[in-house]
Amino acid sequence: AQKITQTQPGMFVQEKEAVTLDCTYDTSDPSYGLFWYKQPSSGEMIFLIYQGSYDQQNATEGRYSLNFQKARKSANLVISASQLGDSAMYFCAMSFYGNNRLAFGKGNQVVVIP
Amino acid sequence: DTGVSQDPRHKITKRGQNVTFRCDPISEHNRLYWYRQTLGQGPEFLTYFQNEAQLEKSRLLSDRFSAERPKGSFSTLEIQRTEQGDSAMYLCASSLDGTSGSEQYFGPGTRLTVT
Known about the structure:
Structural class of chain B: mainly beta
Largest sheet of chain A: 6 strands, mixed
Number of strands of chain B: 11
Largest sheet of chain B: 7 strands, mixed
Oligomer: heterodimer
Order of helices and strands of chain B: EEEEEEEEEEE
Helix content of chain B: under 10%
Largest interface: A-B, 30 and 30 residues
Strand content of chain A: over 45%
Shape of chain B: globular
Structural class of chain A: mainly beta
Distance between the termini of chain B: 34 Å
Number of helices of chain B: 0
Radius of gyration of chain A: 14 Å
Distance between the termini of chain A: 41 Å
Number of strands of chain A: 12
Strand content of chain B: over 45%
Radius of gyration of chain B: 13 Å
Order of helices and strands of chain A: EEEEEEEEEEEE
C-alpha cells in the first residue's frame, strides 16, 4: 500500500522567511508522481507543484520548489519569501501511472505572521 | 470561471435521509474523481471515472454510496440512509487524462453534516 507521511506540527513562519514542509512516502512502484496542494480555510485544494519519479531536476514553480530525494523517499516543499496569503494547510500527495488517483498525507498547517 | 464546480456547497441532513451531490468538471477533462475529507485528515479517494465509465471504487465506498457520470460530463454522488459517520467534506476533481503527472483540479467541495 502507498503511504504519505507528514508529521510536522503546526508551524508559525515570519513573513518573507522561507519554510520547508516535510513529506516522506512509501511505495515499491518505480513510476509515480508527487504533488503538493494548498488548502486555505475556504476549503478548496489548490495545486502547487508536481515532481515525477523519473525527473532528474527538482521541480520549481515560482516561490515553490520541491526538494526531491528519491533514495530517501522524501519530497519536501520549500516556500520562499512567505506571504500572509500562504497561511493554509499543505498536503503532499502521490499518484501512480494508469489511474492517477491521489493518496494524500495528513497535511501541515502553516501560519504566516507579519 | 470555468473551474470545477460543486453543488450544494453545504448540506445538513438527518440521519437516514438520502442526499445527492453534483460535480461539474472542467469541460475538456475526461477524468473525474471523488474524494472525502474528514476533519484533520487529507482527502481520501472514493472513486473515479474515465468519461462515463466508473473505473475504480475504493473500499471506503460502501453499498450506500453510488456515483454516476451518465454522459461523461457532470457527475453525481448519492449517499443513501446517511449515517453520522458520513459527515465530511466531499471533494470532486477533474483532470485531462490519466497520466501520473496530470494535475487534478479540485472543486470547492460539498460539506455534509448528518445530524
